[in-house]
């Protein structure tokens, strides 16, 4: 067990993460990227990769016999032209081609946040959502106990990570709630930064996750494209035991995520 309390914080947008050493990151883009990634694995997807440019996938297909399905959205959240499907959870659940496939995903905020952390030198990055909230914080805390690292939940935000979003902060609060419960159970000492305390206060404002997510601007964007079902699906809590984690590999021009 770590001899000192584990530092626990929340970054409300990715660009708040300046010090990337000795920190375990949990990226949250609850509407929808991180929820989509968990759903892809739960639907039997074999491998998931992140890209910051779908053109890289098309270029890869030109040079290789290996094929990936492309999951990507345009600026308003609809399927990007040239992609096989959008990050819609409802669409993925009804897509028989997902099982056994390899998927490359690109979204406006969640995948951008992960790329930002990788570029800054972060070496341990998990993907968190309400769907796998308990599992992902327990995995991060187990790791931190062994290494003495701190933990930061990174909210992906909106507008390419430039604006704070209610849904991600609320999700961070839910993850913190699970972390505090697990810490008490395991006898782990946590030291909460002010950012974590502020995020945690959101739980007293909204009676349920569904209410909190529907109150966000991210949800309003999905309502505009008639994807309300996705909001409700993203609000479901702890139905997955997965803790997807980024994996450093050199075989592909993308970032791989392992289901763990």
**Count of helical stretches:** 10
Given as residue ranges, the uncertain stretches (5+ residues, pLDDT < 50) are none
- CATH architecture, by name, is Alpha-Beta Complex
Examine the coordinates and then state which fold CATH places here, giving the name of the CATH topology. putative 2-phosphosulfolactate phosphatase
CATH structural class? Alpha Beta
Portion of residues in helices? Answer: 25-40%
Share of residues in strands: 15-25%
Description:
The chain has a single domain, classed as Alpha-Beta Complex (putative 2-phosphosulfolactate phosphatase). The chain is α/β, with parallel strands linked by helices and 260 residues long. It has 10 helices and 10 strands. Strand 9 and strand 10 form a beta hairpin. The longest helix has 21 residues. The strands form 2 sheets. The protein has a 5-stranded parallel β-sheet with strand order 6-2-7-1-8, sandwiched between helices. The mean pLDDT is 94.
List the helices and strands and how they pair.
Elements: E1 6-11, E2 23-28, H1 33-42, E3 47-50, H2 54-63, E4 69-72, H3 89-93, E5 102-106, H4 110-119, E6 125-128, H5 133-147, E7 150-155, H6 166-186, E8 190-192, H7 194-200, H8 209-214, H9 217-224, H10 228-234, E9 245-247, E10 255-258
Parallel strand pairs: 1-7, 1-8, 2-6, 2-7, 3-5, 4-5
Antiparallel strand pairs: 3-10, 9-10
Helix pairs in contact: 5-6
Summarize it.
By secondary structure, the protein is of the alpha/beta class. It contains 10 helices and 10 strands. The protein is globular and about 50 Å long.
